[in-house]
# Entry
Amino acid sequence: VLRPPLLDERSGVRAGSSGLARRAALTFLRAGRQTIVFGRSRVAVELLLTGLREALRDGRGPLDRVHGYRGGYLPSERRRIEAGLRSGEILGVVSTNALELGIDIGRLDVAVLSGYPGTIAGTWQQIGRAGRRQEVSAAVLVAGAGPVDQYVATHPEHLFEGTPEEARIDPDNLHILLAHLRAATFELPFAPGERFGLTPADDLLAFLAEEGHVRQADDGRWYWASENFPASEISLRAAAPENVVIIDTGGQRPRVIGEVDLFSARTLVHENAIYLHGSRQFHVDRLEWEERKAYVRPIDVEHYTQAELAVTLKPLETFDEAPLAGGARAHGEVMVASLATIYKKLRLETNENLGWGRIHLPEIELHTTAYWLAVDPVAVSDWSRAELDVALVGAGRAMQTVASILLMSDPRDLGMVAQIRSPHVQRPVVYLYEAVPGGVGMAARLFQRHDELVAGARDLVGDCRCEDGCPACTGPRGETGGNGRVLAERLLGLLRDGTMGLPRRVTRRVPR
# Structure
């Protein structure tokens, strides 16, 4: 397990994982070792692949034998890469967790993980891609700058001694239930009054009939009526099935080069985005949102684009609540609305900000569940608005980190929204919402484990050796502002035992 070098001791900012992961992979590739590099996102994979190929252009390495692999590539392209890995024709591949399991690519020599995959199970699945019988293999985990990555780097026992994550499902989640019911009806018709698991199926089947998926025959039985194969529309990793097709218009004839899910399309293929595919750059000329088509053309520029989302949250129903010394805790049903607002142009090598532009796309809503903490406004009446904002964001980021560790879930499964004055409860609130349509029970678990969550978040912030907050505790300093660590620690103390207390003064240097 490697930690990237510290860039700024005062702010606690470390270098990202990609540079160190790229150097590690280059060492093995130049030695002729078949290597897989895992990135945390599609953009991370394309940037890693671009960096590796650029470094191999000096002739000291297998430039043409290194490829990318991720969701969004066409099936024919993925099958070709899989076959090349099995035969040994392809020496290196940079992939998302799409190659984590379930696909035969043979046994490789080396696995390099650029960033903690988010779960113990995922980490061991990726590490397990390396290893041949009776031969030496290697696996390298390069921790990212984020708090969960840094926790794993400083607490390796979490990885080596911890148990894999529990399988968490919600059988009543309508998004998941209806998808399975469509697939079941395709296999066999349903008789009147028949149950689907523990759930009576007639009302759900009537809803599917209104949508044109099933029909009820004269004998009362429900039959599949659509021309589509329902199982092909079910993702193993997401509950929202819609995709946007990416069309290259740079050749003599337009051709489809990939696809991207609807949620990601807002940030990856908005107009004027730089879409990366197989280390090649494409400019997005237009995105036809209603038609689910993005039109791109090849381009060669020195930057890529990164979009930002504005997120708002509205509670719909409270399932349970309980008072606290410094406020109240609750969990319930919420509506989360996210809007892509702007994109930044970032230089490929340095991430230098070269400019920005606006994104004009509709808002997307997510109906899900959340856990939240409401702060007693009297307890923070002497705080300025700026101080309260910094404290809420810092405390929320720390709780988000600890929540993923407590629940043993992927950090991306939970989102965070902080509101200085919630229009719904008229007080400061921190929300942790499930980034899954309908939720799968994580919010209820956080409500039950509130004491552990808040105490762990306070310890995380209080034990950090930074001065004003850092990515490993309260989030980037630019997000929380100065004095973020102290203010977040005071607020978490209030939520834990009703007293803010004095923040712990840490004078030890940040370990390298």
In short: The two ends are 14 Å apart (CA to CA). The chain has 14 helices and 22 strands.
